[in-house]
Specification:
This protein has 20 helices and three strands. It is mostly helical and 480 residues long. The longest helix has 34 residues. The chain is globular.
Length: 480
């Protein structure tokens, strides 16, 4: 009898410790008591001991590192590849287009960030989206002293909505887990997802108005003209803009006039039309190489890490034939590579302990068990609501392959079709993209020089609202 009670209590203990571990991690990084890398390593190690499985910590970590190693490799070479493409000027036309639309109006800049992130998200890869979006928009946010967490939050939410594309991952996982056709899941969801994307754009507009009120309306003239040495920002009565006229010098490395040490022109180098790394004669080669790379990624001709490894090697060799130039490009992007890959391997400890100790399974089963019997006919709604916390606290693989089949089985017993369950399971993706277990988010905050805790505090409420809007639209349209 005592043995049977122990067996009941132990999963409950795992559930409590699992939630406690996640809560401890989030609280510590949001209060900036620990860095994300340290928290991702030390907190799960401590809880692994609490569970009584400290002796297996090494196995869990190695298993986690092994599972995430391809992701870390992909991110490392993707950062190098897109870093080189940014250096050689492939994305300068995108920057020009966004700047032409946005000028120096904070509202337009924030909306432009959301639009750019949504467009680039069509490739289905969050890391790529964040690298391109931040590279294009960061200099403008920095120079106008706009809130960088607004940029990261808007980009993450737009990408989260677009992450539901069939080649983005979650839809394919849901289809595989429930043995359905991905197009049958995704196509009917398009109206609800468009409503969610529209909500992100409206939210961007509101956040942009808030920034405009704080900074004032500015104009940015000829920011990309090669012959111009300076760009003048003229204030229009902004309360937080300080001087009415601010001079901005574009240089290849020196500090700009009127800027402090933290605000050097290195931050604005991405817009410098005279930088030494530009390769205008190779523009169409680089464009074709990038399109080919993205096509191969979507068509799954080779594993994504292999594609980016080959792409980075080819891009470096063609654009910078001299070995010292290649070393200089690698050194220029080494900081981002180290930060992101280090964060991914640290996250491997967190996920390894969560899965290895059985905490994830216990948490998922507990959440399924606490659903009242009367909610059976509404399991699609329940699944949509559960997708918010579950896809935030666990990987997409864990949710779609571990939890969704159990929820779908419960729904089927009450006449809810697997297609409805699969569509409802996609609702949480805008919040999922800011999860500490998503490697791409570290690319976003790392390149934007934003604390992960600050990003989390800002984005969670807005991302959750976006998820609920998609869920409500799905119910209204009869999709879910």
């Amino acid at each position: 009898m005592g043995c049977s009670r122990a067996n009941v209590r132990y999963p409950l203990m795992l559930t409590i410790l699992g939630f406690a571990m996640i809560a401890t991690f989030l609280v510590l990084i949001m209060m900036k008591k620990m860095s994300p890398i340290a928290a991702l390593v030390l907190i799960p190690a401590l809880f692994c001991v609490f569970v009584g499985k400290g002796a297996h910590l090494g196995d869990y970590v190695i298993e986690g590192v092994t599972s995430l190693a391809p992701t870390a490799a992909m991110l490392m070479f993707a950062i190098v590849y897109f870093g080189v493409m940014i250096d050689v000027g492939l994305f300068d036309p995108i920057v020009r287009g966004i700047l032409k639309f946005a000028k120096a109006d904070p509202m337009r800049i924030v909306v432009g960030t959301a639009v750019l992130a949504a467009i680039v998200s069509l490739d289905g890869d969050g890391s790529t989206t964040f690298m391109i979006t931040v590279s294009a928009m960061y200099p403008l946010y920095k120079r106008l002293k706009m809130s960088l967490v607004v940029m990261t939050g808007v980009a993450a939410m737009a990408n989260g909505v677009m992450n539901t594309l069939p080649w983005g991952g979650p839809t394919a996982r849901a289809a595989t887990a429930l043995k359905l056709d991905a197009s049958d899941i995704f196509v009917p969801m398009i109206p609800a997802l468009l409503v969610g994307l529209l909500f992100v754009f409206v939210l961007s507009y509101v956040l942009g108005l808030r920034e405009r009120k704080r900074l004032g309306v500015l104009t940015l003239d000829e920011v990309l003209e090669p012959q111009e040495a300076e760009t003048v920002l003229v204030g229009a009565g902004g309360s937080g803009s300080g001087d009415d006229k601010v001079s901005m010098t574009k240089s290849t490395g020196g500090a700009g006039s009127g800027t402090d040490a933290e605000d050097t022109d290195d931050d604005f180098r991405g817009l410098d039309p005279n930088r030494d790394t530009l390769r205008p004669r190779l523009y169409w080669f680089n464009a074709l190489l990038t399109v080919s790379l993205l096509t191969a990624m979507i068509m799954e001709w080779l594993p994504i890490p292999v594609l980016f490894l080959l792409g980075a090697a080819l891009a470096l060799t063609v654009n910078f034939p001299r070995i010292p130039d290649q070393r200089a490009r690698l050194a220029a992007h080494a900081d981002n590579v180290l930060n992101v890959s280090g964060m991914v391997f640290a996250a491997a400890v967190f996920t390894g302990v969560l899965q290895g100790t059985g905490m994830v399974d216990s948490m998922a089963k507990w959440m399924v068990d606490v659903i009242p019997e009367g909610m059976g006919p509404h399991m699609a709604l329940v699944t949509g609501l559960l997708s918010l916390p579950l896809t935030y606290f666990m990987s997409n693989d864990g949710f779609y392959f571990g939890v969704l089949p159990v929820l779908a089985e419960a729904g089927a017993a009450h006449g809810v079709s697997p297609l409805e369950m699969a569509r409802a399971s996609l609702v949480g993706q805008p919040l999922h993209m800011s999860s500490p277990l998503v490697p791409a988010v570290y690319v976003l905050v790392g390149m934007a020089k934003v604390e992960f805790g600050d990003h989390t505090k800002f984005v969670v409420k807005w991302a959750a609202a976006t998820c609920l809007v998609i869920l409500a639209a799905g119910i209204l349209f009869g999709i879910i």
